[in-house]
Predict the 3D structure of the following.
Amino acid sequence: MNLALFDFDGTITHSDTFSLFLKFSLNKKTQILGGIRLAPYIAGYKLGWVTDKTIRTKLCQVGYVGYDADSLKYMGQEFAKSVLPTCVRQNALERILWHKQQGDQIVVVSASLGVYLESWCQSLDLDVICNQLEIRDGILTGDFINGDCGYLEKVNRIKNKYDLTQYSTIYAYGDTPNDYAMLELAHKKYYRWEEMN
C-alpha cells in the first residue's frame, strides 16, 4: 500500500480557509476588537517578522476563548458543506480520487482547524491530522491541544500515527516552506503541483 500526504490550505484549496473560517464563525464585534488587539502581530506577520504559527495561535486565543464548543462544531460542519467546496482545486480533488482508486492511504496534514477540516475529510473518507481546539466543560479555551500542527510538528504527528516503513511509496503534496519537512518524508514530492527531484 502507498501513503499520500496532502497539505490543505493552498495545496488542496486555492485560498486560506483558516482566515475564511474566522470570518465565518466570529461576529463582527469580535473580529473588530480582535483585529485591534492583534494589530501589531498582524502587521508583523505581513512583514515577515511574525511566524504563521504565532499568528494562528494568537488569532484562536483571542477569537475562540469562551466560545461554546457545540456552536463552533455546528459552524464548522456548515462551513465544510457550504464554503469549502468553493475553495477546493479541481486538480487536487482529481488527485485525491486517483489515490483512492489506487487503494492508497490518504492523509490531510494541516495547521487548519479540525472543527471544519474533519467534517470535510470525513465526507471523502480521508484521514486527517490538524489543529484541535481545547475544550473545557463545553467551552473553548482558545488554545490548541498539543500546540500548533505546523512545519516539524506535521512530521512528528505523521510518524506518531503511521509506520512509514509499511508503505511501498510515499507521496507528499505541499505549497509553502512550512511543508518542506513533510515533503522530505516522501519518495514522490510535489510542490505547488510540480514534481520535485
